[in-house]
């Protein structure tokens, strides 16, 4: 029994779960002490409710009380509610007489299921819980019943003491924010925490008191209220004006937005037109570039052709056909040397060909200039060229085969050979009589053509002055040119070669004159 009693009397701290021992004064409470302890933990709301009847006026404003009443009307059941378990009942289902004065609402889940009974006693769920406000007669009856049951057995008394202690702790826990029982150390910590909360609450109270004092001192006067109202009206008027201005600006903004949209659409159209313009411009630039390239090609070709034309116009057919130059001591025509020296030696076929080219040149120039020789007729035939000497006689008979005319005069034609066979040396001049006569006749023809040129200057072209009269570079007298005889008889090779050179020089002078005349004719024809 002792062990059971010790084990049953052990309780644990509800914070640190340390086993604690209950003091004997608490373990053996009488009903009066039990009621005193439980009544000291009545919630503040109940105390304020009980004390409100004693106060002449409320300690809080009526507006706060109205707010509180509205909150109570709209309040819902709490989510978590501290419940106190029901007391242990005897086997017969009756109340514990020592706990008849306790007023606690117990939930059904905390009630112990009573054993089935056959009597007419009601179950604990159906038994009404007495209120604290019952009459003194009811309390006297409960105390009498408790005193009547004090003579029970000692085991029942011990159980009732533990039940009373546990019931007291449950009531204390239900009526406060602290779970009981707690140990001394936890109590000290709890007291410290409550002291801090008290300090904070005191500071808050002082702050509220100070704020209330300042609020009461800052209550505006009638003039201040009137001034504030006038300022409020002015502010509202300014606000209305600002709103009107804002609406006006919003309308302007909407109009500007529409204009901006129209301008953006126009800008897009302009972008399209610009893109089309640049495409056309690039196409035109490409075509222009191709045309310019073609034009440049044609211009270059025209310049090249014009240059060739100029070169061709400047060139003379006579100069190309009869190229007269010199080769040391020899005068050459078309590369044929006219003359003879011991060294270098020139063959007679080359000399005959040179005389043939010279005869062709003079005959061509005379024909081009419209000149007809008197008493002579050139017959260029290459290396076998001849000159016809024309003589007029009064008789009609002639051994040389002259032809008669209607007037009875006869013209004789003597053929002079302007070439040599080369069978005889030059020193034997009498053997070259025919050749000498032909060369003298050629020199006479050259003189006649020179005099014609000197006496007939070329006409001017496009108003420019014409060619003046030219003079032969070397004077020709009978068989001599520049005092050098053209005959082989009684002459030296060097002198004869020099006379041939002078002859070709005069021919070149006449050739240049003929070229100028042709150029002037071409310019005049343009």
Structural overview:
There is one protein chain. The chain is an alpha+beta fold and 526 residues long. Among the domains are: 221-314; 321-391 and 410-458 and 467-525, Actin-binding Protein, T-fimbrin, domain 1, CATH 1.10.418. Helices cover 54% and strands 8% of the residues. The protein has 13 helices and twelve strands. It has helices at 2-8, 24-27, 31-39, 44-52, 62-73, 136-148, 154-174, 184-217, 222-314, 317-321, 348-369, 433-455, 493-525; strands at 11-12, 19-20, 324-327, 330-333, 336-338, 376-379, 386-393, 403-404, 410-417, 476-477, 480-481, 484-485. Strands 6-7-9-8 form a four-stranded antiparallel β-sheet. Strands 3-4-5 form a three-stranded antiparallel β-sheet. Strands 10-11-12 form a three-stranded antiparallel β-sheet, with helices on one face. Helix 11 (348-369) packs parallel to helix 13 and helix 12 runs parallel beside helix 13 (493-525). The chain is rod-shaped, with a radius of gyration of 82 Å. The chain starts with a helix and ends with a helix. Residues 1-8, 51-56, 84-153 and 395-408 have low confidence and may be disordered. Residues 45-57, 144-156 have a biased composition (Low complexity). One of its GO terms (biological process) is mitophagy. InterPro entries: Atg6/Beclin (IPR007243), Atg6/Beclin_C_sf (IPR038274), Atg6/beclin_CC (IPR041691), Atg6_BARA (IPR040455). Belongs to the beclin family. Residues 312-515 form the Atg6 BARA domain.
């Amino acid at each position: 029994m002792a062990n059971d009693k010790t084990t049953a009397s052990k309780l644990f701290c509800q914070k640190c779960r340390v086993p604690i021992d209950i003091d004997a004064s608490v373990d053996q409470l009488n009903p009066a002490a039990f009621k005193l302890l439980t009544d000291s933990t009545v919630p503040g709301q109940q105390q304020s409710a009980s004390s409100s009847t004693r106060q002449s006026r409320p300690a809080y404003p009526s507006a706060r009380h109205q707010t509180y009443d509205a909150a109570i009307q709209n309040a819902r059941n709490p989510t978590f509610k501290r419940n106190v378990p029901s007391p242990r009942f005897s086997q017969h289902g009756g109340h514990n007489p020592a706990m008849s004065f306790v007023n606690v609402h117990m939930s059904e889940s905390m009630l112990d299921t009573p054993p089935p009974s056959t009597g007419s006693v009601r179950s604990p769920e159906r038994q009404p819980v007495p209120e604290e406000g019952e009459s003194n007669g009811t309390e006297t009856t409960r105390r009498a019943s408790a005193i009547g049951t004090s003579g029970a057995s000692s085991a029942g008394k011990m159980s009732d003491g533990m039940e009373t202690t546990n019931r007291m702790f449950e009531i204390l826990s239900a009526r406060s924010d602290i779970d009981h029982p707690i140990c001394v150390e936890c109590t000290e910590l709890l007291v410290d925490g409550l002291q801090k909360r008290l300090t904070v609450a005191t500071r808050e109270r002082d702050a509220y008191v100070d704020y209330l004092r300042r609020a009461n001192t800052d209550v505006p006067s009638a003039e201040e209220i009137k001034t504030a109202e006038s300022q409020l009206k002015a502010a509202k008027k300014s606000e209305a004006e600002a709103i009107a201005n804002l609406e006006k600006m919003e309308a302007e903004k909407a109009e500007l937005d529409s204009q901006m949209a129209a301008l953006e659409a126009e800008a897009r159209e302009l972008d399209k037109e610009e893109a089309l313009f640049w495409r056309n411009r690039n196409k035109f630039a490409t075509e222009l570039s191709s045309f310019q390239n073609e034009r440049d090609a044609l211009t270059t070709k025209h310049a090249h052709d014009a240059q060739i034309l100029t070169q061709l116009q400047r060139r003379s057919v006579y100069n190309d056909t009869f190229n007269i130059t010199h080769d040391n001591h020899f005068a050459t025509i078309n590369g044929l040397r006219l003359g003879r020296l011991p060294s270098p030696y020139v063959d007679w076929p080359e000399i005959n060909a040179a005389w043939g080219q010279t005869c062709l040149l003079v005959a061509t120039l005379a024909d081009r200039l419209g000149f007809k020789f008197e008493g002579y007729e050139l017959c260029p035939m290459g290396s076998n060229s001849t000159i016809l000497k024309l003589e007029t006689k009064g008789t009609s008979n002639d051994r040389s085969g002259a032809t008669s005319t209607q007037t009875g005069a006869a013209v004789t034609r003597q053929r002079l050979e302007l070439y040599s066979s080369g069978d005889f040396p030059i020193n034997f001049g009498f053997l070259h009589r025919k050749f000498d006569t032909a060369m003298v006749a050629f020199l006479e023809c050259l003189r006649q053509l020179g005099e014609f040129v000197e006496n007939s200057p070329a006409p001017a072209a496009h108003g420019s002055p014409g060619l003046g009269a030219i003079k032969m570079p070397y004077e020709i007298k009978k068989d001599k040119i520049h005092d050098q005889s053209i005959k082989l008889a009684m002459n030296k090779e060097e002198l004869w070669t020099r006379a041939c050179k002078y002859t070709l020089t005069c021919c070149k002078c006449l050739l240049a004159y003929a070229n100028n005349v042709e150029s002037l004719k071409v310019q005049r024809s343009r």
